[in-house]
Amino acid sequence: MWKTKCTHFSSCTKIPIKCTSWSRLLGLFSALLRAEFTKMVLRNITVATTAVLLALLLRPGVASAETTCSDMVPMRNRREVISITDFGGVGDGRTLNTWPFQKAIFRIQHLRRRGGTLLYVPSGVWLTGCFNLTSHMTLYLANGAVIKATQGTLNWPLVEPLPSYGRGRERPGGRYASFIQGYGLRDVIITGENGTIDGQGGLWWNMWRQGSLSFTRPNLLEFMYSQDIRISNVIFKNSPFWNIHPVYCSNVVIRSVTVLAPRDSPNTDGIDPDSSSNVCIEDSFISTGDDLVAVKSGWDEYGIAYGRPSTGITIRRITGSSPFGGIAIGSETSGGVENVIVENVNIYATGIGIHIKTNVGRGGYIRNVTISGVYMNRVLKGVRIAGDVGDHPDNNFNPRALPVVDGVTIRNVWGVEVQQPGSIEGIKGAQFTHICLSNVKLWGVAGRWEPWRCSAVSGAAFEVHPWPCAELAGNFANRFCYN
């Protein structure tokens, strides 16, 4: 029987993975080198930058780190293992496997085996339309397995817009369903041996550039109203829109993943926790056409009315590159964002290293954010906290709905070849408060640097280079900056 031959992977699901950070990082980097798209990316990086990347991945401070939040969703053993080939799946890159995936997941859902079921996807290219997952299952991608999305809008059903957005993010009305999706689920794992989920987004990107889209593009992976989700050891590639989008979820672990898209691919955010709580993002490499990680919580009057914040978000040991933002909060923050921890992040060849963004009409709040241990190389702007970013879903937003930004600490940041150190520009009538910069050293190109720009902000700054704006510099009365 097939099941007797699967001990090489089923044993991986029997215990949680407890590797040291050193092993995780080496495994992650080797996975990157195996990925065809990443090889192309690395060929376009200078030798000097590659050396910097290797040094960052292997430097003792990172390699010895043991702190993790991933234990909140443990890796579970599934008592039953089935293969997509048992349901007629053919991994030749030409045969459409939508029906085999649907049959396999229908079986898992309705037989409800005690302890759940692992769906094994062996090596091969498995072409399929979008499909739904179910509770108490593991989707396991073997080494060399590629789940590849079909192209063409006719193969993608339309779904309702998110209630906290009121419409599609790009176009009024509905949106195309995500490639792999889960709704109201519990206890779902997506993992494997660094297999690939490929959204084949090129067609969608071209439609966006040409203005021919009638509805918002699909995400690569989206969970809604779900809990106890774990995603690890998988490569996500060429998403039509956002890559990984947990929305209205709780207890989500995204760890040791690789997210890839060309630098010119529009709106291909890496990981976007949205109106979700207790989200752990760790030990991953992201190179996309938009923000690497962006924390969100709804859009203007719709997000205010829905009122579901993003809270308890941990982002740790992320390396990546993007023409836009590295670590971002916003700009959709109308439900509120609080209790965010970002640690040990390496950002290179990126537009803005740390970007906190909101706008008039957003309402909501951004509170209790701590960002530390960030290294930047070849970044256009190191830090930007801004109150004039992002568009509006319609003309019904309330211009008096002013966001609150209070309690943002940025410390232990080092950057080289940073063209402009930063700007902190609040909103008239809604000053950004308790902004703390501590041990932030951003060095310009060839010894040149531009000054900080600030307005409508209060806080403190200590050991900052270049010396920050007058609103922060020398404000030693603010003891909160030491805590």
TrEMBL record:
Pfam families for the chain: Glyco_hydro_28 (PF00295)
GO molecular function, one term: polygalacturonase activity
Keyword set includes Hydrolase: yes
Keyword terms, alphabetized: Glycosidase, Hydrolase
Gene3D superfamilies: Single-stranded right-handed beta-helix, Pectin lyase-like
A Gene Ontology BP annotation from the UniProt entry: carbohydrate metabolic process
InterPro entries: GH28_Enzymes, Glyco_hydro_28, PbH1, Pectin_lyas_fold, Pectin_lyase_fold/virulence
SUPFAM superfamilies listed in its UniProt record: Pectin lyase-like
Coiled-coil regions listed: none
Similarity comment: Belongs to the glycosyl hydrolase 28 family.
UniProt-recorded name of the protein: Polygalacturonase
Species this protein is from: Vanilla planifolia (Vanilla)
